[in-house]
Amino acid sequence: MINVEYVPWLLNVFDISALAKTADTLLEYVLKEIKYITEELHVVLVAWCTDASGESWKMRRLLRERLGWIITVDCWSHQINLIVGDYFKVKTGLIKVMDQALEVVKWFNNHGRPLGMLREAQKAHYGSILALILPALTRWTSHYLAVTRLLDLEEAIRILVLTSRARLVQAVGDKADAIRKAEEIMDILSQPHFWDCLKTIKKHLEPLAIAANITQANNARLDVVLLTLGHLYMVFSDVHLAIEPVLRQKVLDSLERRWAKIDQDVFLMAVVLNPYVRLDRFNRQNRNLTEAALWNVFRRVYVRMINEEPNHELSDTFTKYVHWIGEWSDTAMALQDISARAARDHHVVVHAIGRVFRGNKDDKNR
């Protein structure tokens, strides 16, 4: 699959069921696909994205050795989901409540009569019926959605348990284990602490769910990924966020570990080359993020992708660009007008700027 101007296109599909699932095998097919993309479709290939499994990661390393100019990246929606997984690996009282919530969902979904009673309670209370959601590892944001759905139904569930507890327990039959489990579920749902903890978990998962949706979009660019990661780090570093220190540190460590593994230069340059951002979101007190340091990052990426050193004219252009000077000012670039038109026409803003400033394809300073 390729993404051209933020639209995905499915290309060739290969049956490799009889082959060893190794990095070398994957590389062979990736190189075939690159040849097809560049020679048959005449697409200018910039990057290759895969998940972060061991063989996929190794394949990307081998691909960079073959094609030094190519950018290789992880699927960042998958990475966000792995951060959620790290959050749930911490053994705290809050995570125990999440386990209880999943038991509640499974119990209702596995017992027809109690589930029917819940549906009747919903219809009477809300006028509509919503399904309980059981999270799945491959369904990103599903833990957040599961918690949110339980909270959406909190009033109906608590009223049902308060008024019909005996009927709910009787509905599971006369086996001791089933009755004991039903009583356990009723006890969980009767505790205000359970619902309060679910609200806290929702607050923790919400920024991660938003990040997953942002990074899985067709128009998710590298600058969007880095700004999203920065926002997550800010959210979980906020002392006003009600979160246990061990959970906070787990999320921050997970973010730092994933950032440390990626090609940081191209992500930094993607932010700098977003004309609405440039240097505005960088900490100028960090010596690695000064204008001079970022020029060196730009130079490294340029040499890698263009295979030549940037000239003095490009250096001067970079300086003017990051300082919003001349043709690179917001007025000269018509940034507000382009933003308004993009919002009206549902276009990606940076994409619209690219169309306006495409200019002469041979001008490397553009």
From TrEMBL:
InterPro entries: RNaseH-like_sf. This is DUF659 domain-containing protein. It comes from Cerrena zonata.
